[in-house]
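Bug report (template v2)

What were you trying to do?
Predict the complex of my protein with magnesium ion.

What happened?
Run completed; filing so the output is reviewed.

Input:
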Amino acid sequence: MEKTFLMVKPDGVQRGLIGEIVSRFENKGFQLVGAKLMVIPRSVAEQHYGEHQDKPFFGELVDFITSGPVFAMVWEGEDVIATARQMMGKTKPAEATPGTIRGDYGVTVGKNIIHGSDSPTSAKREIALFFDEKEIASWEKLLNRWVY
Ligand code: DAT
Ligand code: MG
């Protein structure tokens, strides 16, 4: 089954949105297989956002994502990578549809609440960057029988 890396960013943690965000993915029918509250080391943040290292906002982005705890998660499900991106909404909250996480809770691009992997390749890379294999639980969710 497909896995993706999702993360409530420091603004979402500070605003008390962890529970709301976890609920949305649970209610959708996806399965949580890993989660932890952590402060991201700067070197890990620079690797995580490596594709943006030449962008003018890179320094600010790394400062922000390391500024306080994030809630890092691994979720599993059919087409979870693309579907989670849909549920997050567009990068700029002003362009994100109401009903999406960024559309409902974000105002500015710099504080857009949630990160999610954008492809199978980045999901694999990001899960490995944030989680040890032993931190990922393989479990049978009985409700899956009513989802699939
Ligand atoms: P996403 O988080 O939707 O995958 P991205 O990978 O293009 O978006 O950018 C990563 C983060 O960088 C994004 O969530 C917020 C920040 N960011 C993107 N574009 C920005 C911009 N023009 N100004 C400031 N921050 C930006
Ligand atoms: Mg991205």
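What did the reviewer find?
DSSP finds seven helices and four strands in the chain. Residues 52, 57, 61, 91, 109-110, 112, 115, 118 surround 2'-deoxyadenosine-5'-diphosphate (ligand 1) (CB under 6 Å).
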